Amino acid sequence: MSKTFVVFRNQLTLFFSDRGMLIFYFLAALLTGGSVPFFIRDMATCIYFAMLLTVTLLIPLLADSLAGEREKKTLESLLSTVIKGSSILWGKFLLSIVFALVFFILTTEIAIFTSLLTGAEIGFTGLHWIGIGLLAIMTFISVILSGLYQSALSGDTQSAYTMIAFRAFPLCILYMAGLTAITRIELHFAVYVMGLFLFIYVAVCLIYLVKIAKLRQATYFENVKYKKRGRKQKVRFHETMRKSPMRSVFAHEMRYLATLKLLLFNFLILCLAPASACILGYYYLGDLNLNYAVLLTALMMPRTPTNLIAYSIGGEKVYKTAESLLSTPLHVRSMFLAKMMVPVVVSSVMLLISSSLTLIAGNIVGHFMQQGTGYMYTTDQLILLFPVSILSCISMVLITGSLSARMKRPRNGLYISSVLGLLFVFPPLSIVYWTENHLLWSMIYCIILAVVNRICLEKIAKRISRPQLMNWI
Description:
Keywords: Membrane, Transmembrane, Transmembrane helix. The chain is mainly alpha-helical and about 475 residues long.
């Protein structure tokens, strides 16, 4: 146990040494807790955002915990000391749970203070807050245990991130369902519902505690998946070099993406989220509003290119392949545009699938539950769904790619851009809830995004060069 606290203190020291990330975390909590109550005067929704943001920031922290040590070649030297692998894991567990609780409480407290300033009613009793706190603690424990286990078995942070996100976001959605249940039903029944959700979380925690207990010291040294993937990536890159420069890079990135089956499945789950939001909105509020799907799409879509481009560009620096890539005859601009096209194409396909599923789900509910009522997107909703969402994806590609290339720690670029992606939901929120002419303001916002993207793309294209990239590396 003493060695576990030694690891925890060491991790805590490293965490506080990065002053820039500390400022970033504080600004993220301040921005979310201070702005959401102005748009949605519902405390439960503010807590939803606080939980979603906390889990979003917790996932890369967990992915970097052990898989990151393996990538940086520091895990072997760390495990060769007298400190056991289990002590390292539980030390990182303590850091993760402290971070999650502090960040969630800070964001929630800021949201409560902002709600009081705006005159909104909190509407929660002391028992409600006890239930909210217990569910949050169990959510973080289950997410962290599953995340550390996956990070211990993953060969790199990219695969670890995908595996952890695949487990963390369903647990986050489970928390939202539990919070909705205990705050909208009678107190007598809320106790039983609370017990049911706590039982589910305890079961998840016990499963991963057993899996972690079965890990052995040699397990932490396993790096088979990473080596195999590297060989496949190298062979495919040489095969695509025969094509045109831009096409070769694009084909290489797409073929490599096709090998990440779990990541693609994760994208498919995200496509179902807007349709699920509409159905849940109808179930709890009695009204099927397609604006919920539009706003959730505006929140969800920028995250897809963020993850893809961060690992595409930042991964070249982490895996030490950027120097060899730049030494090839490929043009720098061709590489940049090809890498940028991949997340934009993937996001566009996801957008088409997601909007179609939402429309199908809405019409099914309208046919069976509302006596044949049909639903169709309005013109302003279509503008927010397609051109605005695609332009937002391009903006996030430019932001994330620049941050990942320029920062000494590429993962910090992913952390920062992940929260910056939340900013893209506020203009659609303002258009839907604060303006009367939705169509006019949707067109204005679309034009602004197009102009800003064009200017940023031209400036980046002019400044990008091999010597400049080598300096960033």
